[in-house]
Amino acid sequence: xxxxxxxxxxxxxxxxxxxxxxxxxxxxxxxxxxxxxxxxxxxxxxxxxxxxxxxxxxxxxxxxxxxxxxxxxxxxxxxxxxxxxxxxxxxxxxxxxxxxxxxxxxxxxxxxxxxxxxxxxxxxxxxxxxxxxxxxxxxxxxxxxxxxxxxxxxxxxxxxxxxxxxxxxxxxxxxxxxxxxxxxxxxxxxxxxxxxxxxxxxxxxxxxxxxxxxxxxxxxxxxxxxxxxxxxxxxxxxxxxxxxxxxxxxxxxxxxxxxxxxxxxxxxxxxxxxxxxxxxxxxxxxxxxxxxxxxxxxxxxxxxxxxxxxxxxxxxxxxxxxxxxxxxxxxxxxxxxxxxxxxxxxxxxxxxxxxxxxxxxxxxx
Length: 365
Fold this sequence. Notes:
Layout: H1 4-12, H2 17-20, H3 23-32, H4 37-46, H5 55-63, H6 67-89, H7 92-99, H8 115-124, H9 132-140, H10 142-169, E1 174-176, E2 186-188, E3 191-199, H11 202-212, H12 217-227, H13 238-251, H14 255-277, H15 279-288, E4 300-306, H16 321-334, E5 344-349, E6 352-364
Parallel strand pairs: 3-4, 4-6
Antiparallel strand pairs: 1-2, 2-3, 5-6
Helix pairs in contact: 3-5, 7-10, 10-16, 11-14, 12-13, 12-14, 13-14
């Protein structure tokens, strides 16, 4: 038996491959998942053990020598799972209904991760001082819009993720990691996974279009707009320009206008289909194109939401439980620990090679 500190060091080094290949390592992760004061106290009460300074280490020793304690840990985690599901039952439809009140998903400034950094770079640490009077106008205008977008989008992402993760938790083949430990959201048939809910990245779809010889949609729309003498504001952001051109080409009443809009939709559907048929390539890309602040090599399930008609509308699928639930449960049913080596992924990051287990689930409208 390896010591508690042996696994603790491996965990701190983000070396999770060994955990996935060892029953002892998986047991350590489960124990670590209840290493939170309230959970640990409740479990100690269950096994008649005092909560002391080295309680978690002492439990580890007992787990490896007493099968009864192992069963108690399993029962404790199942009980917590049932409590969590009951709690969500009382609020599930309320959360879902609130998510459907969101009409637009726009960050309001081209940033996603840090409102304070955006404010500092745009309005404070500028090359020339912004007059105070102008700051007041900014607060009432674009900064208000930025703050609103950041707040609403972050709220939407968090609560939709709560519902999606609970869809996994409701399956009897899944055991949640209750203490919210880093790199493990739950165990599927006793195998640890971190869940990532995302969309097809714009840069990735751009590279696939290039590979398939498909013209960029915005470039195509601009070309036909100029051909049909349809003016447009070329200084807006790409998403706004694409929306405007799509609507104006439809409203132009021309056969060419309608045809180019349909061609853009068809080409996007072809691109999405190709990506979904080559899921492992996307998995590798997602690992290799993480930001340094969010880098991780842990086992992952990528739930990728795809709108075949309009990629910019994929955000709405995060609340579409009727679409997502059967896709998730079908994946869980088919997941087989005996063939998990087929999920082994090798990727490079900052000149270093990593190996991990990962799979991808596409929820497609």
